[in-house]
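Researcher: Please predict.
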Amino acid sequence: MKAVFKYLRIWPILLFASLSLSASAPPFRDFMGINGHTVQFRPELYAPVAELVRDYHPVEWDLGKDSDFKTKFPSARNGVNWESVYGSWKKKGWRIDACLMFESLPRDKWKNLAADARAYGEQFARAFGPSSARPLVESVEIGNEPGKWSDEDYRTIFENMARGLRAGDPKLRIATCALAPGKSHAYAKSIECVAGLEDLFDILNVHSYAELEPWPTWRRSFPEDPRLKAFTADITNICRWRDAHAPGKQVWLTEFGYDSTTKQPNTNNEFKKWIGVTDEQQAQWLVRSWLYFAALPIDRAYVYFFNDSDQPQVHGSSGLTRNFEPKPSFHAIAHLRKTLGDFYFKRQFKSAEASVSEFENGARRIWVVWLPTGEGRTAKFDVPDFERIERMPLRKDEDILIRPTGKSIEITESPTYLFLK
């Protein structure tokens, strides 16, 4: 069977033609990550969805209230044994990025910001870096979203902790906190905070959510929605800064996601007008987000979050599991990884109404096809010669094989996978 295509526009490749990839595209399994959290994360449960995990590592656990405390790694000062925690993850095949949240210890509790940050960084790297006796952590981030810290203080702690990390293990890769291309704000520091320190970082870090409306609804939309102004703007502007000032460095998107809950908002708190998405939309939009991000000049994208307790509020229901039971998004993402994990992104284009992402591995090719809307639409799509066709699953052991009876299939807002001849 032969498809007839009407190429309306290349999307979004031409949009980012002025940006350079920091490296050749990785296999898709090395692009997909998940956010976990210390002792709550269950490495075996989440193994089907990713092998890259980002941990929120509270520095206060290691230091207590004394910034100059000499932590006796592998144990934190509060008794958590990081060798046990991270070791159990690594045994299940996880590759660990530790977000060192220095901001968990308030600024006024740091006795000598520069010296204590450097000492802590060196201790951590010597204990867990790739060259250590316990090579458990591949990369670290210096801070998460330290919006309450001044730009001057962030630069001080970044520079000195990074120098300590480099001294402790030069093979340990260093990332910034979440950055913004302009001025610092509550959830990111200005990228200018690290200007001139390019030898001290390997990765620029950014967070982005598909937020269509701010407070009081925090309404999010599908990733391709043209009404979203900042969703990819911050990412691409960080990439432009990278190309101009730090060529060769990677850019990681370490937070993106959607909240889906079965409950209604509490009318007596600040989230009374909050609007979430359905479980099906969460599954669709997360999978499509990864496909969308694959066309950007970034190296990784980590979904927020691993688990939730079904709370109807911002970041309260972002999990791929609900009370550790898989949501539809879990099954959709597990299928995405299983299908494309060994494949490499090649291109993304439009065919009539459909968005198409093409992946290849040697002579094998897969097209992922979907409608880039949020209206519950369907359309016909002419298919090329294929070996088999699968649709995105929402349940465990779902029959996902599509058996066309003609030259076209019905496509929806849930991605369809065409294994081409």
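Model: The chain is about 20% helix and 25% strand.
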